[in-house]
From TrEMBL:
One family name in Pfam for this protein: 3-dmu-9_3-mt
Domain (PhnB-like) ranges: 7-132
Coiled coil: none
UniProt name for this protein: VOC family protein
Residues annotated as signal peptide: none
PANTHER family hit by this protein: PHNB-LIKE DOMAIN-CONTAINING PROTEIN (PTHR33990:SF4), PROTEIN YJDN-RELATED (PTHR33990)
InterPro entries in the record: 3_dmu_93_MTrfase, Glyas_Bleomycin-R_OHBP_Dase, PhnB-like
Gene3D superfamilies associated with the record: 3.30.720.100, 3.30.720.110
Length: 136
């Protein structure tokens, strides 16, 4: 018998100064998207004043968290972990691919790869990797 738990798992994105811009960009691209909560570092730190201490946002009903790390680090996002989006139609896939790819990096151009009708993989200008899929 499984006991109910209050445990919740949420995708957490760590930026170095771009969290607010990334969050606003993502919310602008998806339906049912909103910034749920955001708090900023004040003058007393430890992060740069005005950067994101902690934020929660939702895309298509899925919640994400993000921060601007107060500590510099030698790592960033990797395509080994990506956000997978089931697109409603080809127009949506192309729109998202173009927007997310602007200033980013193409990992797989939109096309038919045998495992879906249409698929594209792109790393956005913030370094976050997105797989865009048209099922069927």
């Amino acid at each position: 018998m499984r006991i109910a738990s209050s445990q919740k798992i949420t995708t957490f994105l760590m930026f170095e100064g771009d969290a607010e811009a990334a969050m606003a960009f993502y919310v602008s691209l998806f339906d049912d998207a909103e910034v749920v909560a955001v708090s900023h570092y004040g003058a007393d730190g430890p992060g740069v004043e005005g950067t994101v201490r902690q934020a929660t946002f939702a895309l298509a009903g899925q919640q994400f968290m993000c921060i601007d790390s107060p500590a510099p680090h030698a790592f960033t996002f990797t395509p080994a972990v990506s956000l997978f989006v089931q697109c409603a139609d080809e127009a949506e896939l192309e729109r998202l691919y173009a927007a997310l790819g602007e200033g980013g990096k193409e990992l797989m151009a939109p096309g038919e790869y045998g495992f879906s009708r249409r698929f594209g993989w792109v790393q956005d200008r913030f370094g976050v990797s997105w797989q865009l899929n048209l099922p069927g």
